[in-house]
């Protein structure tokens, strides 16, 4: 079980409030898509979940325990770029997590352990469609293949949560569709809660079991001029702090219907979701 | 066709590359001949014949007094100093650059002192080194190390900080400790970049070596050219300078080859 709780989380940089009044429960094995315009703080949200950023106030809990303030192996991640290591082969990239885990001093495995981990890595590479490319370096792979590799690398370490930061944003539509199938399969097959940031609404609704929208009130001076001064967001008070009306917050929280449940048959289909 | 679009093919490339060398050689020959025609004993621009004789005497026949082949013993003395110093510098740079670049605490502690120390003109330290360490090998090697290591450290620190933050985070999500990140993520990516940095420091290393040898030594390429300067022996100095240039060029070439052979991923990753 991996339940994520955001309890009255605020994030500020100096005087600027980036995120405010974030109260959220994410159930175990959900696939949550975070959407919103650029600059609305969805990446900041993801980085807080990752442990790379710390909330200014409020708490983030993982199964009721406060989140560690630095990234760890509970939370895997795939970024839009730079997710794989350019100096390691495809196989080396996937093996790396296991090597870190089992060889504290050298970060390298030998003989039997290496063989076992290699077999596991090859099976995983086969699953993401990269078999035959084991000995290539990432620079020799296309963008889509690099993201598949990044997924395999993250999954190899068996995280509880997989965080995706616009992982398919730079890919061509056809390649994107293929990798969507893959990510659905991974979500169904592994014991994972997935949180994905995307600016593509259709992607969010196609993949996720729940879509959460972030929005920032348009009340900066230059924006007031452009959009008019009315504020239409329904404010939800959490009783501890006055809303600043400056930072982004959750404005929509949509359960995708028909319900998608990890590992369960896709709605309307007789077989498990591909 | 526009000039920017005219690209020479391989043959032309080689021919064009050789052209300036040929021109320099020709110019030397013309001026040397002109001077020697006016005065057969002219020492400033010796002909190739007398340089050949000098080279034969220094490289192929033993010295009358000591019985050693001077060019080779000078080369050995200089290379030992130079390579020892560069090896020490490279080791210092690798360790310090990674620690300073990767650990914020080390960066805060050592960053400023490295930045200031790298501004000290190394040659100004040479008298101090001679006083403290004497005139032997240690002071010469130390000069080269001081002159090259600090710049290498600064360069490598910057290269470490250029590693995308995403990579460091990714490694942490794979469960890596600081030590493992340094060992498996940072060091392997820094080695080819360190080779680039060392290639650029070969020139300064020779400069400091020759300066130190010119002032106090009993063997070495720099020592020899400053010694024979007293007799205006251009026929020895010029071949020695050419030889030093060849040595430096070969070192550069060797490092470039090492980089492409040992780090096949690097060329593509650099341009990506």
Radius of gyration of chain B: 24 Å
Mean pLDDT of chain B: 92
Q: What percent of the residues of chain B sit in helical stretches (DSSP H or I)?
A: over 70%
Rg estimate of chain A, integer Å: 20 Å
Q: In which order are the strands of the major sheet of chain A placed?
A: 6-7-8-3-9-10
Shape designation of chain A: globular
H/E order of the elements of chain A? Answer: EEEHEEEHHHEHEHEHE
Mean pLDDT of chain A: 82
Let me know the largest β-sheet of chain B.
none
- Proportion of residues in extended strands of chain A: 15-25%
**Structural class computed from helices and strand pairing of chain B:** mainly alpha
Order of helices and strands of chain B: HHHHHHHHHHH
Q: Give the CA-CA distance, first to last residue of chain B.
A: 31 Å
Low-confidence stretches of chain B: none
Unreliable stretches of chain A: 228-235, 269-274
Count the beta strands of chain B: 0
Label the structural class of chain A. alpha/beta
Task: Tell me what you see in this structure.
- The complex is a heterodimer of chains A (274) and B (272).
- Chain A is α/β, with parallel strands linked by helices and 274 residues long.
- Chain A is built from 7 helices and 10 strands.
- Chain A has helices spanning 42-50, 90-102, 111-127, 143-156, 173-189, 201-207, 221-227, and strands spanning 4-13, 16-26, 31-35, 57-62, 65-66, 75-78, 161-165, 193-197, 210-215, 249-255.
- In chain A, the strands form 2 sheets. Chain A has a 6-stranded mixed β-sheet with strand order 6-7-8-3-9-10, sandwiched between helices. A 4-stranded antiparallel β-sheet of chain A has the order 2-1-4-5, with helices on one face.
- In chain A, helix 2 (90-102) packs across helix 3, helix 2 runs parallel beside helix 4 (143-156) and helix 4 (143-156) runs parallel beside helix 5.
- The longest helix of chain A has 17 residues, at 111-127.
- With 272 residues, chain B is mainly alpha-helical.
- Chain B has helices spanning 10-38, 48-60, 70-102, 104-117, 122-133, 137-162, 165-173, 178-215, 221-228, 234-262, 266-271.
- In chain B, helix 3 crosses helix 9 (221-228), helix 8 packs parallel to helix 9 (221-228) and helix 9 runs antiparallel to helix 10.
- The longest helix of chain B is centred in the last third of the chain and has 38 residues, at 178-215.
- Chain B is globular, with a radius of gyration of 24 Å.
- The interface between A and B is medium-sized, with 37 and 26 residues.
């Amino acid at each position: 079980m991996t339940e994520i709780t955001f309890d009255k989380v605020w994030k500020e940089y100096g005087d600027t409030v980036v995120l405010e009044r974030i109260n959220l429960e994410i159930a175990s094995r959900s696939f949550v898509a975070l959407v919103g315009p650029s600059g609305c703080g969805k990446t900041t949200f993801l980085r807080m979940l990752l442990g790379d950023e710390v909330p200014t106030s409020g708490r983030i809990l993982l199964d009721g325990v406060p989140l560690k303030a630095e990234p760890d192996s509970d939370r895997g991640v795939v970024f839009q770029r730079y997710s794989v290591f350019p100096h390691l082969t495809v196989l080396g990239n996937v093996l790396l997590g296991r090597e870190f885990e089992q060889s504290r001093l050298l970060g390298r495995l030998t003989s039997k352990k290496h063989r076992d981990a290699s077999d596991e890595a090859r099976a995983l590479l086969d699953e993401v469609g990269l078999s035959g490319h084991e000995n290539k370096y990432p620079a020799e792979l296309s963008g889509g293949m690099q993201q598949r590799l990044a997924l395999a690398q993250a999954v190899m370490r068996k995280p509880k949560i997989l965080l995706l930061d616009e992982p398919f944003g730079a890919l061509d539509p056809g390649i994107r569709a293929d990798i969507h199938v893959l990510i659905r399969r991974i979500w169904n097959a592994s014991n994972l809660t997935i949180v994905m940031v995307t600016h593509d609404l259709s992607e969010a609704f196609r993949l996720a079991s729940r879509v959460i929208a972030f929005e920032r009130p348009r009340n900066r001076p230059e924006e007031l001029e452009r959009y008019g001064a009315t504020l239409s967001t329904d404010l939800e008070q959490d009783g501890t702090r006055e809303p600043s009306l400056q930072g982004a917050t959750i404005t929509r929280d949509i359960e995708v219907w028909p319900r998608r449940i990890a590992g369960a048959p896709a709605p309307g289909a007789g077989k498990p979701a591909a | 066709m526009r000039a920017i679009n005219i690209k020479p093919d391989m043959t032309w490339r080689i021919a064009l590359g050789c052209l300036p060398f040929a021109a320099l050689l020709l110019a030397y020959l013309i001026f040397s001949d002109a001077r020697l025609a006016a005065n057969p004993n002219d020492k400033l621009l010796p002909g190739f014949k007398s340089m050949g004789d000098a080279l034969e005497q220094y490289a192929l026949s033993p010295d009358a007094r000591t019985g050693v082949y001077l060019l080779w013993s000078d080369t050995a003395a200089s290379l030992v100093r130079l390579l020892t110093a560069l090896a020490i510098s490279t080791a210092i740079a690798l360790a310090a650059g990674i620690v300073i670049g990767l650990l914020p605490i080390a960066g805060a502690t050592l960053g400023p002192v490295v930045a200031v120390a790298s501004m000290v003109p190394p040659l100004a330290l040479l008298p101090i080194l001679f006083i403290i360490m004497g005139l032997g090998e240690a002071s010469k090697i130390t000069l080269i190390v001081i002159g090259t290591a600090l710049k290498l450290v600064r360069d490598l620190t910057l290269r470490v900080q250029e590693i995308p933050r995403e990579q460091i985070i990714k490694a942490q999500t794979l469960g890596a400790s600081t030590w493992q990140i340094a060992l498996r993520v940072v060091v392997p990516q820094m080695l080819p970049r360190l080779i680039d940095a060392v290639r650029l420091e070969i020139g300064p290393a020779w400069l400091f070596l020759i300066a130190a040898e010119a002032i106090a030594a009993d063997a070495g390429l720099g020592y020899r050219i400053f010694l024979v300067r007293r007799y205006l022996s251009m026929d020895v100095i010029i071949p020695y300078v050419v030889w030093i240039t060849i040595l430096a060029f070969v070192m550069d070439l060797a490092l470039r080859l090492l980089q492409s052979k040992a780090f096949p991923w690097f060329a593509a990753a650099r341009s990506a």
